[in-house]
Amino acid sequence: MLHSINLLRTLSCYAIAIFHIQAFVHAHSDTVHLTFSASPGFHLFLAISGFILVYITRPDDTPLNFMMKRTVRIIPLYWAATTITLLLVLARPWLFHEADTSLSSIASSYLLLPHYDLGGDIQPILFVGWTLGYIMLFYLLFSLSLFMPERVQVPTAIVMTIGVIAGAKLLPAGAYREFYGDPILLEFAMGCLIGLTLRQKAIQEWVKRTPMWPLGLLGIAGFALVMSVTLPSWGRMAVYAVSSGLVVFACAGQDLFRKPLHNEFLSMGGKISYGIFLIHPLLITAFGVTLFRITSNDWVATLLMFVTVLPLTSVLAYLSFRYFETPTNTWLRKAFRLSKLPPKSVRNATPEMRPTVV
Fold first, then answer.
1. What is the 3-state secondary structure (H, E, C) of the chain?
2. For 256-308, what is each residue's pLDDT tens digit?
3. pLDDT tens digits for 158-171?
């Protein structure tokens, strides 16, 4: 079980949620000023996603089979959360004042295609969905790489990613050029490279005899450095990417080839992290507006947001995983007859290296 990776994934989603609470507070209060950066959590989220792609690839995966498995895992909850958001926007437009409810915007939101909202940002009606636009694009690129021999699949995915970024620069100015030309896509590729690296026998032997915690601490130090000094945008991204890569490599190496953590709580945290990611924006808006209206003190409203939104998000994410995501995923996998064979990463491995459900 990838308990350390699950811990990272859970922490990254909570970091993003805390950042969005902070952003809401700053937008509604002139007296409360919080300092919190979601950047480490966000960059970890991207690197973990790339690593997981390589880790869960199965020996019988075809491009269509792989893409369908990732789609039935990601899309149902996203569409459900988007539908709820759209209903709230139509019923209470002042809750999401930058959401564009035109037909083209609604279609682009469901299809995860880049478009500008009324505030000029490239994001769908459920604003955190912009990240899923990148994730689904990389899923597509990775699935196409499965046409190639196994030894060159990950390098092919990385080359195609670079090609998308370069090709987007040739497009006319607009949402597609800005979105697909962002080098942030390379962080998914970096996660895949970590997964590929950990398949190599020499690296596995090195990990087995080398403590991983110094690499993790080095990555954390990199996060601290980039948040405390002024760097150009490309420099910040480079430091964040390297730091998140070190942390993900250390945790994955610990889980797979050293003494892994044994904690079911961490395992569940990883399983509900996707729900945390998609559900918290709805609660922030609903609770935040109400709390700032009924309280006369912005600090009290802010405190109440943290003590209500975060726990309730966790509860709803758990209920979603158990009663919506798992049944839906199971039914769709059976309906489309998607593979059940063990992943390549563990097909010849010992039982303790089997992956968690993702």
1. CCHHHHHHHHHHHHHHHHHHHHHHHHHHCCCCCCCCCCHHHHHHHHHHHHHHHHHHCCCCCCHHHHHHHHHHHHHHHHHHHHHHHHHHHHHCHHHHCCCCCCHHHHHHHHHCCCCECCCCCECCCCCCHHHHHHHHHHHHHHHHHCCCCHHHHHHHHHHHHHHHHHHHCCCCCCHHHHHHCCHHHHHHHHHHHHHHHCCCHHHHHHHHHCCCHHHHHHHHHHHHHHHHCCCCHHHHHHHHHHHHHHHHHHHHHHHHHCCCCCCHHHHHHHHHHHHHHHHHHHHHHHHHHHHHHHCCCHHHHHHHHHHHHHHHHHHHHHHHHHHHHHHHHHHHHHHCCCCCCCCHHHCCCCHHHCCCCC
2. 998 877 777 777 888 899 999 999 999 998 888 888 888 888 999 999 999 99
3. 999 999 999 999 99
